[in-house]
Amino acid sequence: MEGSGNTFRIFKTGKELKSGPHFDLSAYYHVNNIGIGLKFSNYSASSNGMLAVGSSYGNTRYVAVSTKDNITFFEPSIMYSNYNEPTKHKLILDAALGVISYTAKTGNVKGAGSNLGLGAGLGYQYVLSDHLFIGPKLSMTAGTLNKMKTSGITVDLGDEKERLTRVSLSGVVAFHF
Fold first, then answer.
1. pTM of full prediction above 0.90
2. What's the pLDDT score for residue 18?
């Protein structure tokens, strides 16, 4: 990016923002093997890097920059499971459609936006007791931001849309009532 004889370069790739903690919280009402409910998920990541500012005189100054990203997803959800069958091995398939929101804070600049998002998951759970199950889950969350609000100004992202797709492998603890 260039402007007024100055050149700006960021010395980081964003690889640091590809991993970070996440959690999901959901509640379902079951009728036979189908569950209807609500789901909330949150993902966050942060990164540190250097911003290089070069002037037309050949001088370069380096400034430390930190970025914090947060993606939240709140949605109605439908789930299939074999919870009612007499086996200790449970299979869970879920799908959701709802609001995905994104916030990013770099230095003192904060950007935010939201749009329609999609979530899907496949999990296995082993029954430890009548009410406690554990196991792994593979899930995907996807959405795209067309607009973001930064410093009170809404920006149309055009061809530079922000893709919020995330795939995760996690451990699940489920309480069945």
1. no
2. 61
